[in-house]
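I am writing to request your help with a piece of structural work I have in hand. I set the record out below, with my sincere thanks for your time.
___
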Amino acid sequence: MSADQGRIAKRFAALKAEGRAGLVTFITAGDPEPGTSQAILNGLPEAGADLIELGMPFTDPMADGPAIQASDLRALAAGMTVRRTLELVRGFRAGDAETPIILMGYYNPVHAYGVDRFLADAVEAGVDGLIVVDLPPEEDEELCIPAMKAGVNFVRLATPTTDDRRLPTVLRNTSGFVYYVSIAGITGAASAASTDVASAVGRLKRHTDLPVAVGFGIKTPEQAAEVARVADAAVVGSAIVNRITEGLDAEGRAKPGLVGEVLSFVRTLADGVRAARA
């Protein structure tokens, strides 16, 4: 199956048919440890996640703010690797064959694993897409082109500083959807004004037919709803990771009820997104 006929395309087509935007949720694989992470991951679709971004833990996540940096360190301390990240996806796929999963992270762990082996194992595990934030379009031969040939969507980031001259280059081999980073800065920072987001989504739509998902700085159901009125999906990451952090004890272990509290928060975000265009 080609990437443009896979789970991501089907999910966005279904959302369009429903007349609503989607909720994309982000968690870091293995945070705070693999068992709890698997439980959260498995519960996300029922809580209202339409697509899932699963962070591949890395020692130097330079695009991420303190919350996700800390989640990476917790996951790495718990023994997470690329191989174990793919095991989480396999565990998820045992109970869910429909919800798209996009691995998000940095190129170093993929390069160390071996691109061909990584793509083969990712496809076998049930991965649908990749977001690799430190590989520019000029390096498409490294991973983007091989991913496309393997049937894996390569999702690219566009930012407020991606001008009309640069956009065609950014979009050239992008598939699945475009991830618009609504602020210049790191994850978990301030939110963009809804008027700015609407303008940016409109500009992207003039350059591509792909769905546009908007993230960075969305912390509340109300903010998610604002984005869902103008974009094809709202992406929430740091706010969910913060809920995980709040559910840890002094030793960094999951307190009873953590999984339920995180999924309950995701439900409020999903409710906001679903009601946005009502």
Summary: The chain has one domain: 3-275. Residues 59 and 213 are 26 Å apart (CA to CA).
